[in-house]
Amino acid sequence: MPDAIPFAELIADQQPVVLEGLASEWPMVGRGLQGAAQAAAYLKEFGSESFVTLFTGPPEIGGRFHYTDDLSGLNFSSGRAKLGEVLDLVLDGIGDAAGPAYYVGSTDLDQFLPGFRTDNDLTLDHPDFGVRPPLASVWIGNRTTAAAHYDISNNLACCLVGKRRFTLFPPEQVGNLYPGPLDPTPGGQVVTMVDFRKPDLERYPRFAEAMAAAQIADLEPGDVLYYPALWWHQVNALAPFNVMANYWWNPVPAHIDTPQNTLLHAMLSLRDRPGTEKQAWRAMFEHYVFGPAEAAGDHLPPAARGPLGPVDEMTARRLRAQLLNRLNR
């Protein structure tokens, strides 16, 4: 078992890596190895009365939370329930492989299971976490599938109970994964339209190229998977009772805006312009955004650089106000 997370290597390589057994000494893992009932009882010690969001899928979706066939809505329902009641639902259905799918996703550990991280936590020692603390979440359910999507944060996914399979794709495979609508989405992020169980290669022929570039990570209890931001990933929970914790983080201060907003604004302002004009704007973005951060303003005196210099909290507020003013004119 690794003694520590080799963050410097992971971040430099920008590739998914399984850290086998890194969380194997967590009490949650030990309870899960004793059985689903023991794992559920342990979770109830921390948050039995906490109200969580429960997604419920009918048997016919086979655990794949997605859209209806005509994309007019989602193929599952959501509601609020006490965590203890949710755990009982999952336990009661363990013997019914063809029953409903239950899924509690991205639930804040500190808020909904207070005290859980006292004995179940990774030691995160890296300069990134001094900039912006990670968000720790828990994921609970039976046999479910989160269709391939991307996150805007780096991720450490800890398989605690049951087994999980991650199918991962580098960001450049986005076009070969046939992303669905921007809104609504099953879980807040765009998902692939391809059903990995029976891919329709006549309708989605480039998916074969995506699979050629895919990496598969099968996680046992106690294993931890690192993967970088913007890597697409499909997550299959493979056991009748599954628990995962994860840590999301961005190596930038909280006042730095999300590029997802930039993408939406670029669709509004750039996408439908003439090709020659878009090429000119590509050069502008290369100069101001994608090139070295200091390059656009290093020929100016520091006092004259404004947002061309380092973006601190006050500069971010001014940029945001300027942008809002332009959008609202």
Automatic annotation (TrEMBL):
Domain of life of the source: Bacteria
Ranges of residues in domain JmjC: 102-267
Pfam families: Cupin_8
Listed InterPro entries: Cupin_8, JmjC_dom, RmlC-like_jellyroll
Protein name, entry field: Cupin-like domain-containing protein
Lineage: Bacteria, Pseudomonadati, Pseudomonadota, Alphaproteobacteria, Sphingomonadales
